[in-house]
Design a protein that fits this description.
With 343 residues, the protein is an alpha/beta fold. The protein has a domain of 50 residues. The protein has twelve helices and twelve strands. A hairpin with a 6-residue loop joins strand 7 and strand 8. It is globular, with a radius of gyration of 21 Å.
Length: 343
C-alpha cells in the first residue's frame, strides 16, 4: 500500500490533497477475515503532463490496500513519461506507445485489469480522498451487485479553485437517455459486467463513457447513485470536450439511437446548436438569426420525430433497470434499506 511518506515529495508550492495530504490507510484484512477486493484503475494519457502527477497521486494516496493502478500512455511528447517513471514503483503496469486513441488506450488497460471492480480516471481528473473505499464499502454491503456505482457530478476549472455540482436527478433510465447524469471518473463497475458488454466501443472518440453506460443499462445492470463526492472532472481549454463539441454531440446522438432507437429533444437541441450556431458570435442580429434558424429546425424535426414516435423512451420495449439513490423519493422502502444498510 502506498503512503505519502513513500511517494516522491511534491513540487515546490504544492500543498493540500493530493500533495501533502493522504487518506488514512485501510487494513488489508476485513472484519470477516477476508482480503479487501481488488480494485483496478486505468489512466489513459497523452500529453497531459500539466495535470498527470496530480491525477496519479490522487489514485495512489487513496489508502486502499488492494489497488491495481495501470497507466496507458499514447506516446506522449511532453513530460508525461518522465512523470510516469517517477511513480513506476507503485504502478501495476504502464506503457508508452502509439495507439489508436483514448478508447483504445482504455481498452488496453482494461485488458490487463484483474480487479473485481474497475474504473478509469483520465489524466486530467482527480479522486477525492477515500473515494475507492466509499465505493467498495457500498458494493460489499449490498452483496456485490452487478451494478454501476457512481457519485455526484462535479466539474472543476483548470486549477480546481472553482468546483460546480451538476444536477443528476431524477435517477431514471429515461433521464439518463435524455441527459448524461453519470460523471465518468466517479464511476466503478464489476469487471465481469464490463466484459459482458464488450469493453469500450472504439468507434467513439468522445462519448465512449456515455455509450458504455447506455450499453450497461441495456444489458440490465442496476445503477446505484451515491450521495458522495468521489471525483472531479477538470474542464480546461485543452480538454477534448471543449475542443470537439460537434463530434461529441454527434456521437451522443449515435449511441442513444443505436441503444434505444430514440432522438431525445434535449440532445437534438444541443446537436443543432453546435452545428447551426457559429462559435463566438456576439449578441446582435446575426446571432439572433442563427438561433432563430436553430429553433425553426428544432420545431420541424420535433414534429416529424413525434409523428414517427422516435422522441420518447418506451420502457416496455427494453429490459427494466434499477436506479437507486438515497434521496430519491421514488425508491421504495425495501430498495432504500438495501441501498443504505446492505442486504
Amino acid at each position: 500500500m502506498t503512503s505519502l511518506a513513500k511517494l516522491p515529495p511534491p513540487s515546490a508550492g504544492k500543498t493540500g490533497w493530493p500533495w501533502t495530504e493522504e487518506t488514512v490507510p485501510l487494513p488489508e484484512i476485513m472484519a470477516d477475515g477476508s482480503l479487501c477486493p481488488r480494485v483496478s484503475v486505468v489512466t489513459p494519457c497523452y500529453n497531459h503532463g500539466q495535470f498527470l502527477e496530480e491525477t496519479i497521486r490522487s489514485v495512489l494516496l487513496q489508502g486502499y490496500p488492494n489497488l491495481e493502478y495501470i497507466i496507458i500512455d499514447g506516446g506522449s511528447t511532453d513530460n508525461s513519461v518522465e512523470i510516469i517513471k517517477k511513480y513506476e514503483p507503485w504502478l501495476a503496469y504502464w506503457i508508452s506507445e502509439k495507439d489508436r486513441g483514448q478508447s483504445h488506450a482504455i481498452n488496453k488497460g482494461f485488458a490487463r485489469a484483474t480487479g473485481e471492480l474497475v474504473g478509469w480516471m483520465n489524466s486530467d481528473d482527480i479522486y477525492f480522498p477515500d473515494a475507492i473505499n466509499t465505493v467498495v464499502t457500498y458494493w460489499l454491503a449490498n452483496g456485490k451487485p452487478i451494478s454501476l456505482i457512481t457519485g455526484t457530478k462535479l466539474k472543476g476549472t483548470s486549477s480546481l479553485d472553482t468546483i460546480s455540482k451538476l444536477e443528476q436527478s431524477p435517477y431514471t433510465i429515461r433521464h439518463l437517455i435524455e441527459k448524461n447524469i453519470i460523471e465518468q471518473p466517479s464511476t466503478f463497475y464489476p469487471l465481469s459486467l464490463l466484459k459482458e458488454v464488450g469493453y469500450i466501443d472504439e468507434r467513439y472518440r468522445m462519448s465512449m463513457d456515455y455509450d458504455l453506460w447506455l450499453r450497461m443499462a441495456r444489458y440490465g445492470a442496476s445503477f446505484s447513485f451515491l450521495d458522495a463526492d468521489l471525483a472531479i472532472t477538470r474542464n480546461h481549454p485543452l480538454a477534448k470536450t471543449a475542443r470537439f463539441q460537434r463530434l461529441s454531440l454527434t456521437e451522443v446522438m449515435q449511441t442513444v439511437w443505436r441503444n434505444y432507437r430514440v432522438i431525445p429533444k434535449l440532445w437534438l437541441k444541443k446537436f443543432l446548436t453546435v452545428w447551426v450556431v457559429p462559435d463566438g458570435l456576439k449578441p446582435g442580429m446575426t446571432r439572433s438569426f442563427f438561433y432563430l434558424t436553430r429553433d425553426l429546425l428544432l420545431k420541424l424535426l420535433v414534429t416529424l420525430l413525434t409523428q414517427l414516435d422516435l422522441m420518447e423512451y418506451h420502457e416496455e420495449r427494453f429490459p427494466s433497470q434499477r436506479f437507486t439513490h438515497p434521496s430519491d423519493e421514488n425508491v421504495d422502502e425495501a430498495s432504500q434499506k438495501t441501498l443504505l444498510k446492505g442486504i
